[in-house]
Each structure stands twice: as C-alpha cells, then as structure tokens.
Amino acid sequence: MQTKQAAGREPAIRHEQETAPATAMRNIDFSNILDVELLQKQCDAVAEANRNRPDVLRADLLAVLKKASIEGRQKAREALMADGGGLNCAYRISWLQDQITTVLYNFATAHIFPQQKDKFAVTAVGGYGRDTLAPGSDIDLLFLFLPRPAEETHKAVEFMLYVLWDMGFKVGHATRTVEECIALSKSDMTIRTAILEMRYICGLQRLETELETRFDKEIVTGTGPEFIAAKLAERDERHRKAGDTRYLVEPNVKEGKGGLRDLHTLFWISKYYYHVRDQAELVKLGVLSKHEYRLLEKADDFLWAVRCHMHFLTGKAEERLSFDIQREIAEAFGYHTRPGLSAVERFMKHYFLVAKDVGDLTRILCAALEDQQAKSIPGLTGVISRFTHRNRKIAGSVEFVEDRGRIALADPEVFKRDPVNIIRLFHVADINGLEFHPDALKRVTRSLALIDNALRENDEANRLFLSILTSKRDPALILRRMNEAGVLGRFIPEFGKIVAMMQFNMYHHYTVDEHLIRTVDILSEIDKGRAEDLHPLANKLMPGIEDREALYLAVLLHDIAKGRQEDHSIAGARVARKLCARFGLSQKQTEIVVWLIEEHLTMSMVAQTRDLTDRKTITDFADRVQSLDRLKMLLILTICDIRAVGPGVWNGWKGQLLRTLYYETELLLAGGFSEVSRKERANAAADALRAALADWSQKDRNIYTKLHYQPYLLSVPLEDQIRHAHFIRQADKAGQALATTVRTDSFHAITEITVLSPDHPRLLAVIAGACAAAGANIVDAQIFTTSDGRALDTIHVSREFTDDADELRRAATIGRMIEDVLSGRKRLPEVIATRARNRKKSKAFVIPPSVNITNSLSNKFTVIEVECLDRPGLLSEITAVLSDLSLDIQSARITTFGEKVIDTFYVTDLVGQKISGDSKRANITARMKAVMAEEEDELRERMPSGIIAPAATARTPPAADKKAGSPI
After folding, report:
1. CB neighbours of 1 closer than 8 A, spacing ≥ 6?
2. In this predicted model, what pLDDT tens digit does every residue of 353-363 receive, in sequence order?
C-alpha cells in the first residue's frame, strides 16, 4: 500500500462549524489513485510494440499517460468530496504527478535515450516542491545536470517536457548544474526561494543531495535577515496589487491578503531562518503555541480545499473566488442557509475568518523573528529588526514604552494586571502617533479572554474607545488594528457578529466590518477638511456639526445589524440605543444616533430613485427629516456610506443628486418654499428665457419661448433652456427632424445627450435601446414634449473617460447610434442582441422581479418602481411595455446597485391623469414582471426596430400646437 503522512480532516459536512476541530494526522492511501506498476508495464508495452514507429510510439505513450492522469485526478476529486481534506487532495495530486513524471523518466531513459539513465535528476520546486498541487497548478520542475552534460541529456529532458506539454500541463522548468544553481541563488531571490522548496522526484539523487547541502552552507547561512526582508517586501507588494485588504468579497485565494501565498511566505521564512522542515517544529522552538499551530494547519487545509474545489469546478487554474462559483463551493462544503445568512454568506464568513487567522499568524511569527534580532526593515508590516535602540518612556504612561516609533508593553503582565490596558494600548498609540510592535499585538491576541462583560461595562474603557473613534488623527487605522487583533469584536459583541460577514451581491465590495471602518475613514477625511474637491457641501457643513460623537458612532454602527432576519436599519437602531447608554451618551445624543441609523438609507434612495423636481418628493422627505441638524448629519452619513461600498461606486452624479435634495429640503425646512403659484412661476421663467434671447429676432424669441409647457420651464435651469433653444433653432434651420447634442461634466461624472425628435409613444424605449447597444449606462431621463408635437428628451449616462475630449467623442458615437436607430438606418433588436452577446450573463444572482405602483409619492403622477436583475436592453424593454400600456412617461430614474437595478418611472395615462383602477394596475404589474423575467410576450414582439423620421426639410415651427394643456 502506498501511503503518505499528511494532515487529515473531518468529512466535508463538518465545515458547517465555523470553528472546526483540530485536524488529526493520518496516513493517506494512494493505491486507489493510480496503479503505478500497471502504468509502467503499459508504457513498456507501448515501447515494445512501436520500436520502429517513433511517431506512433509517442502518440500511444501520450494516450496511456493522459488517461492515467485524468482518471487519477478524478479519483482525487471524489476523495475531496468524501473527506473534505484540502491538503489531502493537494498531496494526492502531487503524488500522482510524481508517479507520472517518474514513469516518463523511466520510459525516456530505458527506451529512447538509454545512455542517459542516472545522468540527471528531476526535482520539484515551487508549490510542487512542498508536495502540494492544485488541479490546475503549474508543474514546476528543476532538472539537475552533471557538469558538462552531453547533448543527449538535453534531448532526454526535451522529450519529457514535450510529453508533459502535450498532456496539457503548464510546465515551468529550468535545466542547470549544481554550480549554476548556487551562483544564481546568490543574486536572484526567486531562484533562491525555488531551491529552498526543492524536492527529489527521480533520477540521479546525489545531485539533489549535493545541491541541498551546498545551498544550506553557501546560501542560507548568515543571510536570514536579507531573505526575510525580501519575502516580506514581496508580500507587501502582492497585497498592494490585490487591493491590500483581506476583506474583498471576491478574494484571490492564492495571492490575496490572508491567502495561501501568505502561508507559503511563513513557510519559506520558517524554513530559511529556523532551518525547520516541518512547521510543527515551530511549536518546539516556542515560536507558535499549540493552539496557533492548529490554527495554521486548519487555515492551510481550508484554503487548499477551497482552491482545489475552484480548479475542479472551473476546469482551470482559477484563483479568484468569484460570485459565479461561491454558491457551488459553499454547497460542496456542506453549508446550509440560516436565518439572516445564506449558505454562501456563511461559507464566505468562514473564509474571511480563516484569512484573519493567517494575518494573526503572520504577526506572531514576525514578533518571534524580531525577538531573534533579525535585520531591520522599514514599513508598517516589515517588523523584523534588531533591538539597536533602548526603549523610551511614553509621557503619561507607565504601562507602555516606545520602541523606534512603535508602542510596546512595559512588561508582559500589563494586560493581566488591568484589562483596561488592552483598550488603553490603542488609545495611547493614537494620541502619540505610534505604530504597534508585533509583540504587543501578539500579546493582545493571546489576551482576548480578558475582554469580558466587566471590561465592556467599564466607564474608563468606554471613554477611551469613544476617544479613539472620534480622534482627529486617524481613527480608522486604530479601529482596523483593533479589529485585526480581535479586540473590536470582543469589546463590542454586536460588531463581532458582522466581522468577516460578506453580502452576496456585486454592489458591496467589502465585508461588513471592513465597510464600517472605511466609512469612519471617509468621515474622518471630511472632518479634517480634506474633502473639499470631492464633497464641497459636506466639507462646508462638517465644522458646524455640534455633536461629532453622535455622528461618528452612527457611522460606525449603521450596518451593525446586517445578517439578521429583520430590517437591519430597525434592528441596528435598537442595538445602537443599548450601546449609546454603555458609551455614556446623553438621551439627546442617543436619539440622534438611533434616528440616523433607522434612516441611513433614506436620503440615498430618495435622491437616486425619486424625481427631485416633483414637490411632493421634497415635502415627504422633509417630513421624515424634520430638522436642519438631522439633514446635515444624514447627508454626511449617506456620503460616507456610499463611498465606503467600494471603488467606483461613488461618482459626481450621485453627489449632485444628494446636493439637490439637500438644498431643496433645506429651503423647505427653513420656511423658504415659494408660495407663488405654479402658473406665475412658469410665466416668470418664460419671461426670463425671452430676455436671455435678447439678440434674437422678436419672432424667433416668441416662437422658441412658446415651445415649452410648465414642467419644462419650472424644472430646467435657465442656462439649459438657452442651450436647448439654440439647439432646436439650429436643427430647424438645417431641416433636421432628428438631432442630438452632447455635453459632459467631469465633476458630476455624467454625460448629457439631448435628443430632438418627432414625438412617439416608444421614443424613450428606442433611445434606451440605442444607448444599451452603444454600451452607455443611463442613470436619468427627463422627457419633455414641445407645443409643436416634438419630443425634447435629455438622457444622462455615466461618464466613462476622464478626459473630456475622449468622453465627448464617445458621447457623439452614442448620439449617432440614437439617430441611426430612430431613423431606421439600424434595427434596434439586432444592435441590442450584438451587445448582449458580448456580455456574460451572471448566473450567480437571483433577484425576483418586483413592481410597486403608487399614487402617493407625487401629486401629479403615478410612480412605478421596478426592481430586478440588470441586463443589456432591459430599460428599453420596460419602457416599450409602458408604451404598449398607453402610459405617458414624464421622467425616469435609473439606479444600479451592482447586479440589481431599481428603475422609477413617473407616468400618467394619455389624458394626463394618474393610473387608477385595480385591474389596470394588476395588468401593468403582470406585464412588467413578464418583461423583467424575460418571458415571451407577443405584444412586445411587435416592437418597431426604429422610428422613421421624415426627410430633412427646412421648417418654421408653429407658435402653438397643443398636445396636452396649454404652453406658456
């Protein structure tokens, strides 16, 4: 029986426990993976049968080896599903590869190049050298040659390599003498690391033994600090490229922070510096405790299990744990949905907790290395240094000392003597601007049991924490250190529940705890007055906020109840009320925090999904806010929340919407809403437009002023009205029935496309379809009808380029696409289909379509809000159905949250009335749900490919051509 000593696991279903039992050591039976003796006989038979047919021989050999490899890997996959052991799977595949490589070597040196037997050695390096292989891993081989190798030796190696390549393996290889390996190791850290992990497979073993002996003597001895510095710098750069957080919701299992490569770095450093072959020896050396070593084993095994599942599922070396495969892997691990958290969210929480354990282990090992007085390197995470300076006292503190810019413990019993010192450590570090000595953080991690109810209720501990949170320095940095050390979740158990919790959607880029800390970071940036360019209004309002404590606490706690069955805003407000009392806030402060958390989504949703030109939107929102102080704090909380969701989520358009809502509400709360009648205000706006066109003829001024109805005059800024007037007159002079104009605004991150066209019920549907075909993401649409029966539609699309010239060229292309579709030069179904083909449909997410129809959100319009999974051409299809239903769209708000879209339409029937009648509303709901679910709809099949505009002829628009109501 072929066996290998390896770390075993409980069956897969045991992954249900976030804290699995310690792994046991057991032997692995490899006999069912591959019958090596039989494979060797089959290969020898191939050689015997094809002595004079080299081409056939190679093809037959390839077939035999490939079959053995595929079948062996399939058996390794079955074993993974049965026992759940990630390392066992990696060991099985590595063993399988060893046998295939050995059989291939035997074949080459027995039947093809018989003079080359024992003339070279085949060794494994990289991950393969550690005896682990994932299903899609590269096969890294080092072929060791005798000095002055014969030409035949090179040919034998080439034969082996070509067979391995033809089997479909990605083989990384090098051919060197022992002397060359030593020389290159002195100057190249990558080669040094590869040889550090070298493992003999087959061939002339004395070459491998000689290299190992000389490598230890000539390379490793005395160069530990240099190697450690290089490996940690390499790790820091890798983290920077991967996003520098272990809490990305689609983590890279191999290269990401807290992933396998970090564990490999620990292995390399341990092996190089402590000269250990097995990491279990680190316990004997006192570097790790038994508990920490078990954590290391479990983390390694879990990450390997995830990686092997990923490779098997995708059929390739996929290292990013993407949404598309998270659900299937959670199922393979045996996770089940629980109240408030889906199976995939529970699995991902386990993943992030393991990643956090890897961070803890890194810190502990680095602390031990510093104790060993390794060479100093700079930087926050580079913590390997000699004690070349005496520790200095810190003013006002006897518990802590300063060690070259880092806070350290005055003695090992500091925390045991007074557990408040755990919180005080972070407070003193903050007020003195100190980094943390790794030994201090190691002792914090090992003292977490001291954080009990007595400490949580301690007035001094809570005062210190509130001081950290509201610090004018860098509160997010200290909070993140507290979180990484496990303190934050222990000190605030409600926070501990959302540590490492992810939300299974494309909108949130980080785990909930990381999102909350980033939110505090953005608030601190605004608080310091550093956000003027990005958030001019918030930057202006922040100095006037009277209660910073309440705002900071609301920002930290706003998502603390995520993952519960009830609405997290309501549950979070309840949690906050309890915590406010614990932190010593007054009743007034507590009420502010509770209200902010209850309403923390309100301003964002109103700004992004409601028509801000509709007065009832503003009055309803003002009724909820009730005071200017609340409005200011809610605005700042909303900005911080959106920005902390992830890169690219915040943009200038969202900022402009929030500012508009703020200013309109501020005016109402301050009693400044105009009492002048709507008609009078519209007349005044028309007069202002007429006056602004003073250089036009009296006739043109009258004609182009009388084109517009009240909604246009009351909602469109004067500068835009002037621009539109010039645009329409220019189109009329050129005889264009169809025209577009574009402009862009870098601060608002928006590009505006204005379309002049003959009015048509399906106009917005066609424009939306053309935008989808051009790859433009519509965020807002304003629809106006002129008195001569034309449509003047303004579409806002997300900006794509930073350079204005590039963006304007893109906008012009979108405009041409709109014109081509409207004129019939291009067929809409075809251009949308082309776009949809190029976009991979997400199968990971399921969002049941929902439709909400209400008459209470506007005095004039029925508001239809739809929510579903986004896809190319969706807006076009929805608006086409609304047109089929004889609904007139007055305005639209298009909001995308990752994979989910929320579209809001302000509509009337064709005579300008709200939609009433249960049967009509039920019909609208049914038709809308059908289109969102991509169900067949015969009525939609009749959608025209475009709108044929009349031939271009010069025209003078009539002074009045009524569609509905009277122009001003």
Report:
1. 29, 31
2. 898 888 888 87
CB 326 within 8 A of CB 348: yes
Q: What are the residues whose beta carbons fall under 8 Å from the beta carbon of 930, sequence distance 6 or more?
A: 937
In this structure, is the dihedral angle defined by the CA atoms of residues 127, 133, 136 and 138, taken in order, positive or negative? positive
Classify each residue of 930-958 as buried b or exposed e, where b means 16 or more C-beta atoms within 10 Å of its C-beta. Answer: bbbeeeebeebeebbebbebeeeeeeebe
Integer Cα distance of 117 and 612 in angstroms:
82
Token duo for residue 567: 């609405």
Among residues 199, 185, 197, the alpha carbon closest in space to that of 230 is found at 185
**Contact residues for 314 (Cβ-Cβ < 8 A; gap 6+):** 136, 325
How confident is the model over 766-782, as a mean pLDDT?
79
pLDDT digits (tens, 9 = 90+) for 204-234: 999 999 999 999 999 988 888 888 888 888 8
Closest CA to 326 of 132, 506, 93: 506
Distance separating alpha carbons of residues 30 and 783, to the nearest angstrom: 70
Q: How far is CA 866 from CA 299, 611, 869, in A?
A: 43, 15, 10
The residue among 264, 17, 8 whose CA lies nearest residue 125 is 264
Chain segment 579-609, per-residue pLDDT in tens: 999 999 999 999 999 999 999 999 999 998 8
| The pair of three-digit structure tokens given for residue 911, joined into one six-digit string | 């005579």
**H/E run at residue 177:** strand 171-177
> pLDDT, tens digit, for every residue of 675-729?
556 678 778 889 999 999 999 999 999 889 989 887 788 777 788 899 999 999 9
CA 388 vs CA 374, 391, 404, 960: distances in Å: 11, 10, 9, 89
Structure tokens at 202: 């087959």
Closest residue by Cα to residue 57 from 110, 122, 134: 110
The residue type found at 706 is K
State how far the Cα of 636 lies from the Cα of 526, in Å rounded to an integer: 9
| DSSP string across 496-508 | HHHTT---SSSS-
DSSP code for 752: E
Helix (H) or strand (E) holding 521: helix 512-527
CA distance 173 to 161: 9
Q: Tell me the average pLDDT of the chain.
A: 84
Please give the pLDDT value at position 842: 53
Give the whole-angstrom CA distance, residue 968 versus residue 952: 28
Which burial class, exposed, middle or buried, applies to 379 when counting CB atoms under 10 A from its CB (0-12, 13-18, 19+)? exposed
Q: What is the DSSP letter of 375?
A: P
Q: What is the pLDDT of residues 536-583, one digit of tens each?
A: 999 999 999 989 999 999 999 999 998 888 889 999 999 999 999 999
Three-state SS at 623? helix
Q: What is the DSSP letter of 599?
A: T
Q: Flag whether pLDDT at 874 surpasses 60.
A: yes
> How far out from the chain centre does Cα 753 lie?
31
Question: Are 579 and 456 within 8 A, CB to CB?
Answer: no
Number of Cα atoms under 13 Å in the Cβ half of residue 659: 16
Tell me if 785 sits within 8 A of 721, measured CB to CB: no
Residue 332, pLDDT > 70, answer yes
In terms of phi and psi (left: phi > 0; alpha: psi -120 to 50; beta: otherwise), the region of 789 is left
In tens, the pLDDT along 230-281 reads 888 888 787 777 655 556 778 889 988 888 988 888 888 888 888 887 888 8
Sole residue written with tokens 């007035």 = 459
- 3-class secondary structure, 331: helix
Taking residues 510-525, what's their average pLDDT?
93
What is d(CA 246, CA 457) in angstroms, rounded to the nearest whole number?
A: 31
Task: Convert the pLDDT of each residue in 735-753 to its tens digit.
Answer: 988 888 888 877 667 788 8
Amino acid code (one letter) for 521? D
User: 6 - beta bridge partners?
Assistant: 26
Tokens representing residue 482 in the block: 């507290």
**Could you count the other beta carbons within 10 Å of the beta carbon of residue 855?**
14
